[in-house]
User: Fold Isoaspartyl peptidase/L-asparaginase 2 from Triticum turgidum subsp. durum.
Amino acid sequence: MDKSPHSYLAFDGAEDFAREQGLEVVDNSYFITEENIGMLKLAKEANTILFDYRIPLAGADTCSALAAASEKNNSNGMAVDFCVKERLDEGFAGLIAVSGTGEVAYGFNCTGMFRGCATEDGFMEVGIWE
Assistant:
């Protein structure tokens, strides 16, 4: 995201940005694989989406409330707390946020969340539970 002021790109805007950066844009059929077809079949049979929560998804949603809270001069930590308590499903979610200045904040509303961070000033933290 070094070439964009945005933290999240989606839909037509994301495709336009990709073209501007010289990336090849392919037809959606390119992403239909045997593995994906099998995963869809399992999801339909289970009547739920099977998602592996162990794998972090950078920039996923970024909680619009996080940006709104940050704009109101609230700390990164306050914004994360708001997202975790008010916006994310109880008992299933965790969030790690890094501000533009490198401030790291995290929160979760489940039993534990594997996490780790290291900052430029030498601070390091690894944790699972609160």
